[in-house]
Amino acid sequence: MCVTGCDIHDAKGEQQSAAKAVELVASGHAHVLLKGFLDSGVFLRAVLDRDHGLREQAMISHTVLMDMPSSERMYYLTDAAMAIKPTLEEKALMIRNALQVTAALGLENPVVGVLAESEKVNPKMEATVHARELVEMNRRGELTGCRIGGPYALDNAVSIHAARHKNMDDPLAGNADILLAPDLAAGNILYKGLMYFAGARAAGVVVGTSAPVVLNSRADTDETKLNAIALGVVMAHARGML
């Protein structure tokens, strides 16, 4: 088979391949960085390299768009791939990164649902405390471009019925567009649970870099990989790169 319409660059081994791909994107010869069948650690080390990488913001995070057959709405989930145990400040930056994705797709002033173990603030549950602080930051105008609610257990983040049943008077409860996971474990399990048990279709992108980075799992379906590439192209277009 003859491959035409593209440039092929020679590289030996995973590290050199990742470094070369990052170099091409950083120089503007390519506009989206796509992880192929190589180790995520090798890929991300090239992306985050201090001298030659693509880091642009203080926080680099992953946002995935989830389309579920059982729901008329689509949800954005962050973070299912990058932020292991984010601090309060890092969660604020993750929200700002996710807003770049929603803006590129035309969603204005989305509702951010800050997920936790409970909808009640408990000093022993850090995620609930972080949620309260993020809500206050939003109210004070320190975190704009969205409406933030929480803490929410998953049910009252996405179900108005569940929120009403629990007698919640929060007008944002049940209306979340962006789901902010408390940590990587929760985000990754939720992401894969929705895909494997609920049949969700997904498209994810890394934000906080100078160009969109598509970080697919090697186990992802062809459809998921294609969706992620399409989202990367949309993000590149929104940044004026295409």
Description:
This protein has 242 residues and is α/β, with parallel strands linked by helices. The chain has a domain at 32-44 and 58-79 and 184-242. It contains eight helices and eight strands. The protein has helices at 13-26, 40-47, 88-104, 126-139, 154-158, 160-165, 184-198, 222-238; strands spanning 33-34, 61-67, 74-78, 111-115, 147-152, 178-180, 201-207, 213-214. The strands form two sheets. A six-stranded mixed sheet has the order 5-4-6-3-2-7, sandwiched between helices. The chain has a two-stranded parallel sheet with strand order 1-8. Helix 3 packs across helix 8. The protein is elongated and about 65 Å long. The model has no long low-confidence stretch (mean pLDDT 93).
